[in-house]
Design the sequence.
C-alpha cells in the first residue's frame, strides 16, 4: 500500500502567506512508513493544480501509479478548482479500471480530526488537544548551536535550537520529550526535558528555543534534535533577579518530571519517543 504525498503545500505554490508547517516533508514520510505504508511523492505544481479530475485520474492514478484501489477520506476533493468528489472518483474508477473507496473521518465529540484543528491547538498552546488530533505529541526539529552559556553558569545547561521551521507553540515553558535524529525523520529517544520558547526577558537575550535535558550529560553541538511538546507549564515572564529565575527553573524541572513520568520510548517508533 502506498500513501500519495503532494509537497509543497498549495499556499506555497500559489504565492499565499507561508505559514510554518506542522511537519516537514521528511517527518511526514517517516510517520507514514512507521505505520507500514510506502510513500509516493507527486510534487504539487501549478501544472498539477490545473489538471481536471479526469486528467488527474488518468495521468497520476493510472499511468503513473497503476492504481487498483484508491482509498480516500469521505470529504476528498481533487482536480482543478476541487471539482472532483468521491462520486466522480468512483465513475472514473469504473471507466479506468480501479476501485474507489472512502473511509469515514475520524472524530471525537468536538468534530473530525484535521490538520487545521491540530494547528489551532498548537497555536493556542493546548498541546493535549493537539496530541488528540495527531495521535502523538506535536514536534519540531532543530540544530543545536552555541548559546551564551548562561544556563550552564546556573547549573541548567540548555541546547539552543536553530533552523526550526515547523510550527512552534506560543512563548512559554514546556515539558517535552527529546529525540536525537539519526536520519531525516528518524531518531532515538534521548531524554525528557523542559524547554523555553521566547525572548528570555529576565536577561534580555533575544528570541530562542532552548531545551534543558533532564538527567543527561553530553555534547550535542551540531546534533539535530526533535522536541515533542507535551504540556505547557507556564507563560514566559520576567523575574526580578537571576536567583528568582533559577528558583523558578528548578520548579519547572520538578513539574516537568511529574508530567513526563509515565512517558516511555515506544518500540514501534524505532526507539523514538511516542
Sequence:
Amino acid at each position: 500500500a502506498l500513501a500519495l504525498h503532494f509537497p509543497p503545500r498549495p499556499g506555497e505554490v500559489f504565492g499565499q502567506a507561508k505559514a510554518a508547517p506542522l511537519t516537514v516533508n521528511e517527518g511526514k514520510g517517516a510517520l507514514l512508513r512507521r505505520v507500514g505504508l510506502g510513500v509516493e511523492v507527486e510534487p504539487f505544481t501549478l501544472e498539477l493544480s490545473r489538471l481536471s479530475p479526469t486528467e488527474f485520474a488518468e495521468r497520476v492514478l493510472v499511468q503513473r501509479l497503476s492504481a487498483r484501489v484508491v482509498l480516500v477520506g469521505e470529504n476528498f476533493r481533487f482536480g482543478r478548482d476541487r471539482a472532483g468528489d468521491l462520486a466522480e472518483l468512483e465513475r472514473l474508477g469504473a471507466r479506468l479500471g480501479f476501485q474507489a473507496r472512502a473511509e469515514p473521518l475520524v472524530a471525537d465529540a468536538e468534530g473530525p480530526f484535521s490538520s487545521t484543528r491540530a494547528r489551532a491547538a498548537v497555536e493556542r498552546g493546548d498541546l493535549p488537544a493537539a496530541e488528540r488530533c495527531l495521535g502523538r505529541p506535536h514536534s519540531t526539529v532543530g540544530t543545536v548551536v552555541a548559546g551564551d552559556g548562561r544556563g550552564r553558569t546556573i547549573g541548567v545547561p540548555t541546547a539552543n535550537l536553530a533552523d526550526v521551521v515547523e510550527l512552534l507553540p506560543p512563548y512559554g515553558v514546556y515539558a517535552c520529550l527529546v529525540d536525537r535524529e539519526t536520519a531525516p525523520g528518524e531518531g532515538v529517544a534521548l531524554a525528557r526535558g523542559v524547554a523555553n520558547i521566547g525572548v528570555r526577558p529576565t536577561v534580555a537575550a533575544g528570541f530562542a528555543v532552548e531545551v534543558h535535558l533532564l538527567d543527561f550529560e553530553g555534547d550535542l553541538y551540531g546534533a539535530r534534535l526533535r522536541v515533542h511538546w507535551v504540556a505547557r507549564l507556564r507563560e514566559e515572564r520576567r523575574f526580578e533577579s537571576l536567583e528568582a529565575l533559577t528558583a523558578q527553573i528548578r520548579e519547572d524541572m520538578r513539574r516537568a518530571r511529574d508530567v513526563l513520568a509515565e512517558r516511555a520510548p515506544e518500540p514501534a517508533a524505532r526507539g523514538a519517543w511516542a
Remarks:
- DSSP finds nine helices and twelve strands in the chain.
- The chain has two domains: 2-107, 137-269.
- The domain at 2-107 is CATH 3.40.50.620 (Rossmann fold).
